Automatic annotation (TrEMBL):
The lineage of its organism: unclassified sequences, metagenomes, ecological metagenomes. Residues 1-10 have a biased composition (Basic and acidic residues). Residues 1-25 are annotated as: Disordered. One of its GO terms (molecular function) is isochorismate synthase activity. Pfam families: Chorismate_bind (PF00425). It comes from freshwater metagenome. Residues 1-186 form the Chorismate-utilising enzyme C-terminal domain. GO terms for biological process: salicylic acid biosynthetic process. This is Unannotated protein.
């Protein structure tokens, strides 16, 4: 979850740092423990947590996060996740203004943001469309919930083809082949949702 605002309560649950799942409980537990112990993944996660915290803090009277990340399990991968919770200052910011502050997070746009986004635009070779944005809702009071559009597909007008998006956070300790495998694992959720046997 990118950000959730209800009255003056605010929370975010950033995810960064990923390991594939096999479906075997023993293998998945070993992968989870390896992920928790990985200096590379902890660094990747910490960059995102620091950015989210620092972006939200000026709008909060109180903001804190869990001392250690936990494992967040989804169908085909598991992530490091850290809950950030607090109270908005008075008058509270509108959730949509907070979404604009947070997008894109370093998990999608890199850090420092300006230099990373400029490099991505120069070398990536395609436009991302809605990938890396946010989807959610908000009400007239400024409450709402938004998630990052991190696994998504863009269908052609005739609905016969789809362009899928997934990626990985790159840090100094990243290994290209492992990042490729991670990205391929992330694609599996979308592939299984839209490809019929």
């Amino acid at each position: 979850m990118l950000v959730d605002v209800h009255d003056r309560s605010i929370s975010s649950h950033p995810l960064a740092g990923t390991a594939p799942r096999t479906g075997d409980p023993v293998s998945d537990e070993i992968a989870a423990q390896t992920l928790l112990a990985s200096a590379k993944d902890q660094t990747e996660h910490r960059v995102v947590i620091d950015m989210v915290h620092n972006a939200l803090l000026p709008y909060c009277s109180y903001l804190d996060w869990e001392p250690e990340p936990s494992i967040v399990t989804v169908a085909n991968v598991q992530h490091l996740g850290t809950r950030i919770e607090g109270a908005l200052s008075d008058p509270p910011a509108h959730v949509f203004d907070l979404v604009r502050l947070l997008c894109p997070t370093p998990a999608l746009g890199g850090y420092p943001a300006e230099a990373a986004i400029s490099l991505i635009q120069e070398v990536e070779g395609f436009t991302r469309g809605n990938y890396g944005g946010a989807v959610g809702y908000f009400d007239a009071k400024g409450n709402g919930t938004f998630a990052v559009t991190i696994r998504c597909a863009e269908f052609s007008a005739d609905r016969k083809t789809a362009r899928l998006f997934a990626g990985g956070g790159i840090v100094a300790a990243s290994e290209p082949l492992l990042e490729l495998a991670e990205t391929q694992a992330k694609f599996q959720a979308m592939l299984s949702a839209i490809v019929r046997p």
